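Structure first, sequence second, as always.
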């Protein structure tokens, strides 16, 4: 355990990349080193102020140590940053829609609309996708019914052949 601490400390001292910072601090969190994480997160955030994962880890560490107000401040920054990124769900929905993947498009739009419920363009796109899905379902239902009907006819023919064979053998 002591060697692990030394190695993690050495890596942190040499200015790791953004991703490496997060991985090391996450490992330290698993080891219960919240006070060290706070110091290292603050250093990392001076280099990478927009890293939402580091901010979340900092908020968790503040909360672990009972600093609720500081945790709230960090989480406010995180949720604000997430709000800036939520439009990715709308873009993903548009891509899925163009790829004829309506269920996935509707799911992505629902994620987007959870954050931006008043976006009229997203609401229109969702309504369009839902109507496409509803139009598809009757076709799928008909295909299933056709298969079921064919299976029933096949089974009936087998029964008739079986009954005829029994009658002829008597």
């Amino acid at each position: 355990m002591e060697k692990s601490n030394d190695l993690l400390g050495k890596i942190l001292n040499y200015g790791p990349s953004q991703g490496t910072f997060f991985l090391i601090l996450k490992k330290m969190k698993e080891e219960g080193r919240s006070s060290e994480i706070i110091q290292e997160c603050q250093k990392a955030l001076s280099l990478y102020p927009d890293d939402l994962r580091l901010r979340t880890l900092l908020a968790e560490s503040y909360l672990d140590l009972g600093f609720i107000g500081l945790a709230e401040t960090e989480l406010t920054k995180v949720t604000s940053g997430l709000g800036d990124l939520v439009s990715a769900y709308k873009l993903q929905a548009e891509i899925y829609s163009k790829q004829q993947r309506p269920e996935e498009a509707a799911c992505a739009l629902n994620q987007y609309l959870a954050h931006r419920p008043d976006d009229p363009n997203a609401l229109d796109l969702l309504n369009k996708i839902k109507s496409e899905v509803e139009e598809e379902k009757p076709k799928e239902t008909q295909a299933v019914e056709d298969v079921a009907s064919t299976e029933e006819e096949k089974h009936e023919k087998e029964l008739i052949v079986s009954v005829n064979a029994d009658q002829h053998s008597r």
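Margin note: The mean pLDDT is 80.
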